[in-house]
Specification:
Elements: H1 3-25, E1 31-33, E2 39-41, H2 46-64, H3 75-97, H4 104-113, H5 119-136, H6 143-162, H7 169-184, H8 192-209, H9 216-234, H10 237-253, H11 259-265, H12 267-274, H13 299-302, E3 315-318, E4 321-324, H14 369-372
Antiparallel strand pairs: 1-2, 3-4
Helix pairs in contact: 1-2, 1-8, 2-3, 2-8, 2-9, 3-5, 3-9, 5-6, 6-9, 6-10, 7-8, 7-9, 8-9
Amino acid sequence: MTVVVGAIVGFVTGRMLWLALRKAWTRQPFMRENYQGASIPTAAGIVLCATLVLAEAVRAIAGAAGVGDGADLTAVRAAVLVAVVGFSLFGLLDDLTGSGPAKGLSGHLRALGKGEITTGALKLFGGIVVSLVAVALMAGDGFGQLLIDGAVIALAANIANLFDVRPGRTAKVSLLAFLVLAVATAFDTALVPVAIVAGAAGALMFEDLRERLMLGDTGANALGAAIGVGMVATLGTTGRFWAAGGLLFFNLLSEVVSFSKLIDRIAPLRSLDQMGRRPAVVDVREKTEPTLPPDEVPPTARQPMAPAGAKLGDAHIGKSGPARSPNREGKPSSPFEDPSASFKDKPLREPSPSFGEQAPPLRRESSNISEQLGFDPDDRRSSYYSDED
């Protein structure tokens, strides 16, 4: 199997597995809030581990049947398998149970100094052990080289996790690093198991960019660890030494520099980082209308409004504002009305004449609602005015 074929197998298998697991992953305890406050499933990176295990099982069965070259589990394939499964398990533990204020390497070490073992610290030391076991499965060059190779795997896993703070960022960085490694090593067949994991990450990248899932520590650490094993398996002694130094530098740099802020300041990196992502969500509920001084408020905004529930028969509305007529007991029908207020218009209905008096001429009831309510149709400043009246 070539590197390209391995990547295709990983992509197809990873996509099928996610479609099968997606419904189960939309329930608790997998739902978490992302950086925009949206609740989406985390730890979806378990698909990377499942894809590799399934692919290696099929290769072993096919090899036993005399098909392909997967009959014997090579040292590199075993190392990738151990690294991916081990880091996935520790990452899953941190995704589902990890909490607390401790953040970053220094935060977990400070908590450990106080006697508190965080899930991050457990993942840190567990990852070191898994890295050493994975390196031991490959032919080593002594104790010193064992430590350097183990550091490459552990640091690569952690640096991938550090980028997992924005949608699709870890997948983009890891896939780019894998592509550079594959080209630099002329697509060495030792990278086939790494290509399977990278292909599975590519299958989840679109969903990750659209904020429908998060790889979580489960996927980010596993993906970084797989690439770290690929470096150890394909690079020479000098190359592994420089790889360990570079990864250590970026891990220490993350303790004092925010990668997100750094990426946002550099235009090419910002464009690459935002490529394919959904636009940021703006919460319009937090926006308020600007307030103006009273002398700058337009007349229309200062025009008083009729009280809620006002009816035609019990309201006098004029240019000076609305007021409700007194009730039968002669008291204001609302405690907020001023009984001494004067109004321009008379009541809409005249009182009945006494016996013997000449009845006044009948008032024509206007069919125009604005005239019934006492509005001047020419006064367009009224907040109740409508051209349709």
